[in-house]
Specification:
By secondary structure, the protein is of the alpha/beta class. It has 2 domains: 124 residues, Leucine Aminopeptidase, subunit E, domain 1, CATH 3.40.220; 317 residues, Zn peptidases (Aminopeptidase, 3-Layer(aba) Sandwich). The strands form 4 sheets. Strands 7, 8, 9, 10, 11, 14, 15, 16 and 18 form a 9-stranded mixed β-sheet that branches. It has a 6-stranded mixed β-sheet with strand order 1-6-5-2-4-3. A 3-stranded mixed β-sheet has the order 12-13-17. A hairpin with a 2-residue loop joins strand 3 and strand 4.
Length: 459
C-alpha cells in the first residue's frame, strides 16, 4: 500500500514554494495587486482562477503557485495541484492546510500492482497542524486500501486473499480473528455456504470475523459484503454485466478500511468485524433458482434469483453480528443496481430506522464532504418479499424499489432493538475527478468514521 506520510510533513520553516489559493470571485482583486510581469503572465495564459487551474509566477527570485479553487477549504481543493505540480516542497500562503490535506495526498495515489507508476517525484506539503497530520494520513491510507482491493483482479483476490487481509489487520492491531469454513460453515451459516459452494476448493466460502477492544466498552459491528467475483450464478450475467464484478467485494473493502481506522484511533469500542467471503461461481454444485435456503436465523428463503446473492450472505453475517448484542451495526455492500439507477455512482443510499443514527450519519457526511442520501425502509413494500412456499423470497418479481426491498430483506436479520444502518455503495468511480481516479473508490467511509468518532471518542 502507498505510504502517504512523506507527502505531508511538519512545517519547520524549511524552503518551499508557496501556493496561493484563489476563487474566481477573488481573482480580480488579487490581480490588481500584482506587479506588471505577473499580470502579463496571467493574461498571456488566460488564467482566471477557475477551479483546478494553476499558474506558476515569479516570487522573490523563486517560483510560486497560484491556484484556482471552487472554495479555499475542502478535501479536494488541492487534489489537482498534487497531480500536476512538479516534485518539491510546498506550503500554503497565509493559511493552514486543514481539510485540504486529504486531496493533496490522494491526488498522488496510483494503483501500481499491474504496471509501473509515473516517474514524477513526490510533491510534499508542509503543515503546521501536526496534531491533525496523522489522522489525515490514516484517512488517505484507508481510502487507498479500498481502492487497491477493489482494483485488484478477481484472479488475485479471492476469499483466501480477503482472509489474509483481515489476518494482517489483526496482527497490526493485536486483534483476534476467527474463520468459519467447510462443514461448519454449511451447518451454521447455510446461506453463505450456498452462495459460495460452486467455487473451487481454493476459493471456498468462509465467514471471517475479527474482534478487537475492551469487552467492557460499547459493542459495535461492521459487516461487509465480500463477493470476490459475481458471475450471477445460474442466473448468469451477460459479459458486459460481469466485466466489473471484481468490485463486488467493495463492501468488504469498506468494512476493512473502517475497522482499520477505528483500531488505529483506538476508539473505546468493542469492535466486531464480519466479512462473508465467497465467489458466486457456476458449476454443477451451484445453488439453483427455486431452491429453498435455510438461514442461521432459522428463517427459510426461496431463492428467486441467484444474482441476488449479496443479501443472502449478509443475512447470515448480520444474524451473527446480532448475537453479540451490539448497540450499533453498520453494513457496507455493493448490493443493487437499483441504487445506482436512483442516485447514480457518487451518492450512496443510506437505510436506517434509527432517527438518531440517521441524523449523526447525515451530519458527519456533510461535515466530511462525503455525501450519503437517506432512503426509506418503506414498510409498505415488505409484502413484496412474500413467498408461497417459504418465509420470504430473496428478490421480488418486477424489479420495483429494488434497493429498498434489498434493505428490507437485510432488516429481517437485524435484532429489532439494535441501531442499524445499511449503505449500498458502488465502490467504483466510472470517470475520474481530481484526487479520485477512475476505478475503485471509497464512498461514505469518511462519513461513517466521523460518525463513530463523534459517538465514541469522548467516552
Amino acid at each position: 500500500m502507498m505510504d502517504f506520510a512523506p507527502l505531508l510533513q511538519p512545517d519547520r520553516g524549511q524552503p518551499a514554494r508557496t501556493i496561493t489559493l484563489l476563487t474566481a470571485e477573488g481573482f480580480a482583486d488579487w490581480l490588481a495587486r500584482q506587479p506588471v510581469a505577473t499580470r502579463t503572465l496571467a493574461m498571456a495564459q488566460r488564467f482566471a482562477a477557475k477551479p483546478d487551474t494553476h499558474l506558476l509566477v515569479p516570487h522573490d527570485g523563486e517560483v510560486a503557485v497560484v491556484a484556482g479553487v471552487a472554495k479555499a477549504t475542502g478535501p479536494w481543493a488541492l487534489a489537482k495541484l498534487a497531480e500536476a505540480l512538479p516534485e518539491g516542497q510546498y506550503r500554503l500562503d497565509g493559511a493552514e492546510v486543514g481539510a485540504n490535506a486529504l486531496g493533496w495526498l490522494l491526488g498522488q495515489y496510483r494503483f501500481t500492482r499491474y504496471r509501473k507508476g509515473d516517474d514524477n517525484g513526490p510533491r510534499v506539503l508542509l503543515t503546521r497542524d501536526v496534531a491533525h497530520r496523522d489522522e489525515v494520513i490514516r484517512l488517505a491510507a484507508a481510502t487507498a486500501q479500498v481502492r487497491d482491493l477493489v482494483n485488484t483482479g478477481a484472479g488475485d483476490l479471492g476469499p483466501a486473499e480477503l482472509e489474509a487481509e483481515v489476518e494482517a489487520l489483526a496482527r497490526t492491531h493485536h486483534a483476534q480473528i476467527m474463520v468459519t469454513s467447510g462443514e461448519t460453515l454449511a451447518r451454521d451459516y447455510p446461506m453463505i455456504h450456498a452462495v459460495g459452494q460452486a467455487a473451487t476448493r481454493e476459493r471456498a466460502p468462509r465467514l471471517i470475523e475479527l474482534h478487537w477492544g475492551d469487552p467492557a466498552h460499547p459493542r459495535i459491528a461492521i459487516v461487509g459484503k465480500g463477493v470476490c467475483f459475481d458471475t450471477g450464478g445460474l442466473d448468469i450475467k451477460p459479459s458486459a454485466g460481469m466485466r466489473l464484478m471484481k468490485k463486488d467485494m467493495g463492501g468488504a473493502a469498506h468494512a476493512l478500511a473502517l475497522a482499520s481506522l477505528v483500531m488505529a484511533a483506538r476508539l473505546p469500542v468493542r469492535l466486531h468485524l464480519l466479512i462473508p467471503a465467497v465467489e458466486n461461481a457456476v458449476s454443477a454444485a451451484s445453488f439453483r433458482p427455486g431452491d429453498v435456503l435455510k438461514t442461521r436465523k432459522g428463517l427459510t428463503v426461496e431463492n428467486t434469483n441467484t444474482d441476488a446473492e449479496g443479501r443472502l450472505i449478509l443475512g447470515d453475517a448480520l444474524t451473527r453480528a446480532g448475537e453479540e448484542k451490539p448497540e450499533l451495526i453498520l453494513d457496507f455492500a455493493t448490493l443493487t443496481g437499483a441504487a445506482r439507477v436512483a442516485l447514480g455512482p457518487d451518492l450512496p443510499p443510506l437505510f436506517t430506522d434509527d432517527e438518531a443514527l440517521a441524523a449523526d450519519l447525515l451530519t458527519a457526511a456533510a461535515g466530511e464532504d462525503d455525501p450519503v442520501w437517506r432512503m426509506p425502509l418503506w414498510d409498505g413494500y415488505d409484502d413484496m418479499l412474500k413467498s408461497d412456499i417459504a418465509d420470504m423470497v430473496n428478490a421480488p418479481d418486477g424489479g420495483f424499489a429494488g434497493a429498498i426491498t434489498a434493505a428490507l430483506f437485510l432488516r429481517r436479520f437485524v435484532p429489532k432493538d439494535t441501531a442499524w444502518a445499511h449503505l449500498d455503495v458502488f465502490a467504483w468511480r466510472p470517470s475520474g475527478k481530481p484526487g479520485r481516479p477512475k476505478g475503485g473508490d471509497a464512498y461514505a467511509l469518511r462519513a461513517a468514521y466521523a460518525m463513530l468518532k463523534g459517538r465514541y471518542s469522548g467516552r
